[in-house]
Specification:
Order of helices and strands: EHEHEHEHEHEHHEHH
Radius of gyration: 18 Å
Largest sheet: 7 strands, parallel
CATH class: Alpha Beta
Helix content: 40-55%
Number of helices: 9
CATH architecture: 3-Layer(aba) Sandwich
Number of domains: 1
Strand order of the largest sheet: 3-2-1-4-5-6-7
Number of strands: 7
Structural class: alpha/beta
Shape: globular
CATH topology: Rossmann fold
Distance between the termini: 48 Å
């Protein structure tokens, strides 16, 4: 195991962000936790320190505001002296088909899933480039690759945009600072409160089904996704599907988009 790192995590008050903070804490890393809800952040920070984190810093922030993201970076550097890994994890969904989306819903989903990550990348990348070291991780979704759940249309579109931004910044930084890693993480279904907290979410969301076999997709626990991200930090790669079944579905989709979508529509 490597020396302790300082890891900034947005969306750290619940779900994947919380699970990642606790996983890294158990590995001895220092964590800087950002989200809008201070009480929840303080709960996660206390548990992180109980599990072994040398330090857990709480920074209440709205990451759709550039000044808050810059303050998050500055606080991490001022308090802990360095940032080794930055994880753009904040996200939000909406349950709405393309032709029914409102302006407010579309803007909200793009702000949380894309704008916040853009601000995070722009805030920390100059620091990483100057050091020629660091790891930038964007948490996307399998749905950003495959339009398997059309009632999450704007979320799918936002994650597809995040995928493209991540790929472009990775190519840009490879030439300028080869010691800086940029990774895209694409979880599948994860057992968090994400679906329940989506805009316009129904009381009971239907399970996801693969189009060709009509099988309910097996969800992952947040802890399982967090372990995959922790291993990615230890051994960086460009892209990671946390669920191997998602990678296979993506390959099938791009092998024959028309056939895949026809099956999904049935």
């Amino acid at each position: 195991m490597s020396a302790p790192r300082t890891v900034v995590i947005t969306g750290a008050s619940a779900g994947i962000g919380e699970a990642l903070a606790l996983e890294l804490a158990a590995r001895g890393d220092r964590v800087v936790l950002a989200a809008r809800r201070r009480p929840e952040l303080e709960r996660v920070a206390a548990e992180a320190e109980r599990r072994g984190a040398p330090s857990a810093v709480v920074v209440p922030a709205d990451v759709t505001r550039r000044e808050d993201v810059n303050r998050l970076r500055d606080t991490a550097l001022d308090v802990l002296g360095a940032v080794d890994v930055w994880v753009n994890n904040a996200g939000r969904g909406v349950v709405r088909a393309v032709l029914e989306l409102t302006d407010a819903e579309f803007d909200a989903v793009m702000d949380v899933n894309v704008r916040s990550a853009l601000y995070g990348m722009q805030a920390i990348a100059p620091y990483f480039v100057e050091r020629n070291a660091g790891h930038l991780i964007n948490i996307s979704s399998f749905l950003g690759r495959v339009p398997l759940v059309t009632f999450r249309s704007a979320y799918n579109a936002a994650k597809a945009a995040l995928n493209a931004l991540t790929a472009n910044v990775r190519v840009d930084l490879r030439a300028r600072a080869p010691g800086v890693h940029v990774s895209l993480v694409m979880p599948g279904i994860v057992t968090t409160e994400f679906a329940r907290n989506a805009l316009n979410a129904p009381a009971n969301s239907p399970p996801f089904r693969t189009p060709a076999r009509n099988e309910t997709m097996k969800p992952q626990a947040p802890d399982e996704v967090a372990r995959a991200i922790a291993e990615l930090i230890e051994h960086p790669v460009a892209e990671l599907y946390t669920n191997p079944a998602s990678a296979e579905l993506a390959r099938r989709y791009y092998a024959d988009v028309g056939a895949f979508e026809a099956a999904a529509a049935r």
